[in-house]
Amino acid sequence: MHRRARRVADSEEPEFESGVAERLAQYEVSKPRLVADEAAADTVLVERAATLLAVMPRNQLRTTIEGLLSPHDLDKGRGAIDALIDAALAAEDESGHVRLRTPAT
Fold first, then answer.
1. For the chain, first and last CA: distance in Å?
2. Inter-axis angle of helices 62-69 and 35-55, to 10 degrees?
3. Among 22, 42, 87, 99, which residue has the fewest nearby CB atoms (within 10 Å)?
4. How far apart are CA 92 and CA 68, in angstroms?
């Protein structure tokens, strides 16, 4: 048996729920990360890159280190390796191998 929707004959104005904004105000919205947090994260990645190069066998491929540092965002891994090279703490040869620089090199 099907029921038909009933129509309210005397309703002229729609009914609105009151107090919705007040009830939703108690839920906080997450705040976006600040640029300073990203700089701190990059510093951590640079430190991790130096540690990896120190403990892994010598002359690791750059892509290997980048993938280990930041597997889901390779650009961050590249940035960490670039920072080590720019600071003259690491060197990259023509074949793409990266190594830590020793004081003699």
1. 89
2. 130
3. 22
4. 17
Residue 10 has pLDDT above 80, yes or no: no
At 26, which amino acid appears?
Q
Residue at 19: amino acid letter? G
**Topology of the domain comprising 32-100:** Arc Repressor Mutant, subunit A (1.10.10)
Q: Report d(CA 80, CA 73) in Å as an integer.
A: 12
Task: Give the start-to-end residue ranges of the domains of the chain.
Answer: 32-100
Of 13-17, 29-33, 97-101, highest mean pLDDT: 97-101
pLDDT digit string, tens, across residues 41-81? 588 888 999 999 999 888 889 999 999 998 998 888 998 99
What is the amino acid identity at position 29?
A: V
